[in-house]
Amino acid sequence: QKEVEQDPGPLSVPEGAIVSLNCTYSNSAFQYFMWYRQYSRKGPELLMYTYSSGNKEDGRFTAQVDKSSKYISLFIRDSQPSDSATYLCAMVTGNQFYFGTGTSLTVIP
Amino acid sequence: DVKVTQSSRYLVKRTGEKVFLECVQDMDHENMFWYRQDPGLGLRLIYFSYDVKMKEKGDIPEGYSVSREKKERFSLILESASTNQTSMYLCASSPPIGNTIYFGEGSWLTVV
């Protein structure tokens, strides 16, 4: 079993839709949880990171962590064509980072 | 903002050549990493370093070596490039608390 599981998609939504991206994990020792956005042929760009269970909001993005279920989510409100990218989740314990394989998102104008 | 700079964005090398990929970070981070990213396989750790002159093997170190002579600089070396090393290479750094990791723009290497 992989440490981090992420549905690869692809996911296609109309502009303005709410997008939900999810990852599950198996290691209860993970301490920090991150979401990255990666445009084609570019490096991953950090969107948000959280430490505890609950929600963290930044503009149109909300990161949610449920440690009891070992489940994290990223919600994108009012999605825009510029949100079209691959989204990766990541987790860390003791300087060891674990990544999902990424979900490809396309927002259709 | 954290800046991780990879000096070469696109390279084409011949089989058997020695290849150097350079990376510099400007946030005084102790931890630096080299990953390769391939479709369907995600990010795979090649090597990492927790301090100057220190290195640790990651999941796929075969065919690679690294050098960290200065805190801000971490180099990846392909001793004898092979076609199966054609990939995107990502350098990254993280602070000692390890609460997140920052990536460079990536180096696209094609070995012919």
What does this structure look like?
The complex is a heterodimer of chains A (109) and B (112). Chain A is 0% helix and 58% strand. Chain A has no helices and eleven strands. Chain A has strands at residues 4-6, 11-14, 19-25, 32-38, 45-50, 54-58, 61-66, 71-76, 85-93, 96-99, 103-108. In chain A, the strands form two sheets. In chain A, strands 2, 4, 5, 9, 10 and 11 form a six-stranded mixed beta sheet that branches. Chain A has a five-stranded antiparallel beta sheet with strand order 1-3-8-7-6, with no helix packed on it. In chain B, the strands form three sheets. In chain B, strands 2, 5, 6, 7, 10, 11 and 12 form a seven-stranded mixed beta sheet that branches. A three-stranded antiparallel beta sheet of chain B has the order 3-9-8, with no helix packed on it. A two-stranded antiparallel sheet of chain B has the order 1-4. Chain B has strands at 4-6, 10-13, 19-21, 23-25, 31-38, 42-49, 56-57, 64-70, 73-78, 87-94, 102-103, 107-111. Chain B is built from no helices and twelve strands. Helix content of chain B is 0%, strand content 53%. Chain B is globular. The A-B interface holds A 31-32, 34, 36, 41-46, 49, 51, 88, 90, 92, 94-95, 97, 99-102 and B 4, 6, 31, 33, 40-43, 45, 50, 88, 90, 94, 98-106, 108.
Biggest sheet statistics of chain A: 6 strands, mixed
Unreliably modeled segments of chain B: none
Query: Radius of gyration of chain A in whole Å, from Cα?
Result: 13 Å
Number of helices of chain A: 0
β-strand number of chain B: 12
Spatial gap, N to C terminus of chain B: 37 Å
Q: What is the string of SSEs of chain A from the N terminus onward?
A: EEEEEEEEEEE
Q: Work out the helicity level of chain A.
A: under 10%
Number of strands of chain A: 11
How far is it from the N-terminal to the C-terminal residue of chain A, by CA? Answer: 38 Å
Radius of gyration of chain B: 13 Å
